[in-house]
Here is the input.
Amino acid sequence: MIETYWEPAWLTLKLAGLTTLLLLIVGTPIAWWLARTNHWLRQPIAAVVALPLVLPPTVLGFYLLLVMGPEGVVGQLTEKLGIGLLPFTFEGLVVASMLYSLPFTVQPLQNAFESVHAGFLEAAATLRASPLDRFFTVVVPMARNGFLTAGVLTFAHTIGEFGVVLMIGGNIPGETKVLSVAIYDHVEALEYTQAHWMAASMVAFSFVVLVSLYALKGRPRVEMVR
Amino acid sequence: MTGRIDLDFRCEFPGFRLDAHLSVPGSGLTALFGHSGCGKTTLLRCIAGLQPCTGSLSVNGEVWQDSKVNLPVHQRPLAYVFQDTTLFPHLSVKRNLEFGYRRIPESDRALSFDDVVAWLGLARLLTRMPAGLSGGERQRVAIARALLTSPQLLLMDEPLSALDQRSKQEILPYLENLRDRLAMPILYVSHSVSEVARLADHIVIMDQGQVVDEGPLQATLARPDQRFGLEEDAGVILTARISERDDTWHLARAEFDGGELWLRTDDRMAVGSRPRLQVLARDVSIALTRQPDQSIQNLLPATVDDIVTDIAPGTSMVRLMAGSTPFLARLTSRSVHTLGLTPGQPVWMQIKSVAIVD
Here is the structure.
């Protein structure tokens, strides 16, 4: 009982943590570009980033399965690189989660970046700060709440995902069997006690995460721009 | 290093075109003056590299931009004081001041941190956050932060316009102090005649994206053919020396080359001090003979030098010389005709009001 409980829980945390970390790294430049550019590709790219919000997870999972499968472009590439096929592996799950949670990282970051007044960046430039320097010393601290929101939302959303996991990861204990899938398993098997334990702890966990987020963000700081 | 700042910039926007060609002294305070929308801020942004444009710029012999070179903003050794203060809200005053200071090599730090903090009276504020400062305090921090990069050119974009009258009066002495103390040239954008009169050594007048006039402040403002529409604010600036105080009537006598003026004074006007005085064209009238039986006390002999039809219909601008000092008088064209004024004619100037601009 203890084993079957902790294994999916640990796997879930590992998946959510890794997805969040990687998405913050990948999502930050995308969000920055979307926040600052006037390029004609801005709208199409913003739409692509937002697609996972409207698509059923099964649609996303289905196409990922095809693309990462032995006949797919990505599948053939990963096989050539000696990584093997991604579907039904933990790594495959990370890639799928990253795509599925992308808007939850990019949109809060983009909003935060857009609210950083261009005047601060211009001032930093006249104070000898190079573009990268300006990003890390002015934008990142001023968009602190955006990073916090993006991190927590991505983490929480990854923990809660089910459809994509089922399509791309299946149900392999210790590899792809995360909490949401384990709960489904228990319910299917009419093991309501175990399902209760997992479900109730997820409710509690999510509640604690969201309360801490609101506490950390505190009252919105009044920033004197003018 | 008394070189020059040479620039030639062109850029195009929807409905506006900047085409500025200019050479100004590489020291002292040069005011870029004009009505809002004339392109003075755009020109300043081009100089800083904040506004991409084609053209060339060299400052005291160093090329910052031409057909081959175009230094990005953070590599131009300049400092910029913005109209709205752009103090970083997440950093304390001290960390704001250090932002630029830490980013220049130690060997380039011509101004010491403690000196600049002392000049601008910031010692008390160092641990505060920008959100807790008054408007005047914030602008002083912004000026200090700019100076601490030891720039070779200081750009100021209407640094007082967002402040109330009291904060303006608080900052102005600091600006005068900097102008007199620093070797670096200052380009100062303003649409306020009184700020320009008080601070500038040199003036550049802009209109519709072009430079319409430029030259030393006093000579330029004394030109009667003013193409730049100062309207009610047209007038001359002169430097005088206080030679006597009359505390009974709260008056002081100011001597200048060509005469003397009595002005209403307060306690700070010490004998021997050299204030800048402003005499507006609308406060000067002309009589053919001395008229002592009247309220105006400042009566000066002068010679008519030039008469030009003014911008406003029915008015003329008359330039008068008292010794080597020029004055302007705005008269109706009928008065000019009735008095029969002609260049070279000796007359009496009646000066209704003299303002001390610093």
Observations:
- Chain A touches chain B through 25 residues (CB under 8 Å).
- The domain at 2-217 of chain A is CATH 1.10.3720.10 (MetI-like fold).
- The radius of gyration of chain A is 20 Å.
- Residues 221-226 of chain A have pLDDT under 50 and may be disordered.
